[in-house]
């Protein structure tokens, strides 16, 4: 596949440079596509188009009902291209095709319709009586030109959580996908071109980190919405602070699954597998610290090992595959380094470890790996590994489990597994995270806000709070007669 143009302001245009991005299959290690890469001059053109669309165009001044109708048309066209979208995501990042169809594509498609439902109930205008006799009207207006920067691991889902609420709010958007995953973004641009959005409202600029930094610092951008690592998020926040630019950050995680003493080991193992090892463990809210009661540690560890040993690892285009390759060789090297560090620090490899999975001699694979005999001070329990690696940590009582869960730089997600939902909810109230699941990983419900605390960032996506992030609140006081 070859793409030679950039989607700038709703029009396919010749890029300003000859720079290109080669897309490499994580499974075959062969080049599957070459696409045009954006340069700073292309960012300038995209922001200029967005600025014109926002400052002088119809989109921000369109009635919310009309914006909702346009986004619903976009969702309808998107639905017709789901199979193509899933195939592209599998090709570029190695996501198993079943997961790509279900979560990488069907989930963002569902989110589009759900956001439209939220927007229909959203309080774009609110009237309230004032204390001094005036009538107060509260208006929620679009924040302006938005820079949306997304990583490669869940590209369409993360695009949808930014692009769709921004469009519904009336913003113009410059989207920068990761260089590892430009193909799905290009297909999305084709869908957007068919949807009836006015020119200038959306641009799609595949590019590297330097292009992203230039976009973040651009004076024509009013709001930055960034998803990525905590280290990159700190740099984005600092850049935005210099210009008092609005920013929301959805960053890393090191989430804990607290297994209470009344939980069923097989149910826990199945729930943790789904919440932790999907997308080859490359998900920010994965449950990677498994906290188990000391007295039953062997039972829960054995159940996890049995569940993980049954996983099918291999060709991501095979519908039977459950764990595919990591996105890049650098990720394979990075995760392998964590496996080696875990052993050096004294943890025991129950399952997996270094080396290629059986039957594979190429591709950027890592064996699904389970550690036990670990404690929360170890590097494998402190840092985000971003691969199919789980660490079992024993605890003495519930208070200690809660202390361990909270003893983390991160605060994105977490879960508790128990036979008593109310007991689980009480645990949830004591964990410092932005999201939490009881007897499940956090389900990413489109009507509930998602986001983190501490090094996991700030701001919220999804639900009405997801639209809040793309609006400014204006108070208008009208004097009494």
Strand content: 15-25%
CATH architecture of the largest domain: 3-Layer(aba) Sandwich
Instruction: Classify the fold: give the CATH topology of the largest domain.
Output: Aldehyde Dehydrogenase, Chain A, domain 1
CATH superfamily membership of the largest domain: Aldehyde Dehydrogenase, Chain A, domain 1
Strand arrangement in the largest pleated sheet? 15-16-17-14-13-19-20
Biggest sheet details: 7 strands, mixed
Question: Any idea how many domains?
Answer: 2
Compute the separation of the termini in Å: 67 Å
The quaternary organization reads as single chain
Query: Number of helical runs?
Result: 15
- Give a count of the beta strands, DSSP E runs of length 2 or more: 23
The top-level CATH class of the largest domain is Alpha Beta
CA radius of gyration is: 23 Å
Query: Helix/strand-derived class?
Result: alpha/beta
Morphology call: globular
Poorly predicted regions: none
Helix content: 25-40%
What's the pLDDT, averaged over the residues? Answer: 97
């Amino acid at each position: 596949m070859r793409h030679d143009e950039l989607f700038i302001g709703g029009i396919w245009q010749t890029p300003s440079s000859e720079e290109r991005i080669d897309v490499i299959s994580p499974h075959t290690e062969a080049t599957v596509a070459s696409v045009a890469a954006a340069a700073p001059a292309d960012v300038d053109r995209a922001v200029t188009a967005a600025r014109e669309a926002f400052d002088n165009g119809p989109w921000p001044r369109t009635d919310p009902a009309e914006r909702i109708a346009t986004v619903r048309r976009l969702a309808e066209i998107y639905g017709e291209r789901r199979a193509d979208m899933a195939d592209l995501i599998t090709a570029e990042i190695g996501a198993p095709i079943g997961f790509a169809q279900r979560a990488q594509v069907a989930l963002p498609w569902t989110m589009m319709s759900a956001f439209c439902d939220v927007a229909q109930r959203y309080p774009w205008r609110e009237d309230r009586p004032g204390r001094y006799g005036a009538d107060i009207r509260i208006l929620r207006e679009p924040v302006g030109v938005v820079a949306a920067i997304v990583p490669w691991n869940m590209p369409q889902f993360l695009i949808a959580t930014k692009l769709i609420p921004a469009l519904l709010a009336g913003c113009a958007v410059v989207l920068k996908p990761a260089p590892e995953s430009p193909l799905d973004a290009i297909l999305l641009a084709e869908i957007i071109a068919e949807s009836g959005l006015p020119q200038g409202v959306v641009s799609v600029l595949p590019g590297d980190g330097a292009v992203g930094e230039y976009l973040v610092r651009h004076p024509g951008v009013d709001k930055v919405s960034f998803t990525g690592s905590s280290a990159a998020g700190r740099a984005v926040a600092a850049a935005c602070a210099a210009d008092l630019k609005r920013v929301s950050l959805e960053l890393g995680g090191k989430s804990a699954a607290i297994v209470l003493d009344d939980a069923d080991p097989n149910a826990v193992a199945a729930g943790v597998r789904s919440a932790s090892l999907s997308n080859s463990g490359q998900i920010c809210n994965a449950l990677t610290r498994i906290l188990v009661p000391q007295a039953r540690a062997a039972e829960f560890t054995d159940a996890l090992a049995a569940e993980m040993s049954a996983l099918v690892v291999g060709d991501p285009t095979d519908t039977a595959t459950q764990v595919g390759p990591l996105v890049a060789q650098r990720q394979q090297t990075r995760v392998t380094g964590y496996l080696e560090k875990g052993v050096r620090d004294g943890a025991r490899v129950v399952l997996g470890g270094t080396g290629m999975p059986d039957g594979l001699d190429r591709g950027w694979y890592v064996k699904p790996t389970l550690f036990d005999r670990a404690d929360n001070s170890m590097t494998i329990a402190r840092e985000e590994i971003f691969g199919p690696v789980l660490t079992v940590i024993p605890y003495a009582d519930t208070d200690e489990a809660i202390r361990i869960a909270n003893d983390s730089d991160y605060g994105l997600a977490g879960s508790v597994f128990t036979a008593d939902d109310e007991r689980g909810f009480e645990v949830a109230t004591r964990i410092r995270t932005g999201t939490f699941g009881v007897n499940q990983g956090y389900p990413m419900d489109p009507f509930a806000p998602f986001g983190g605390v501490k090094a996991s960032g700030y701001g919220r996506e999804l639900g009405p709070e997801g639209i809040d992030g793309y609006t400014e609140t204006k108070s208008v006081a009208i004097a009494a007669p």
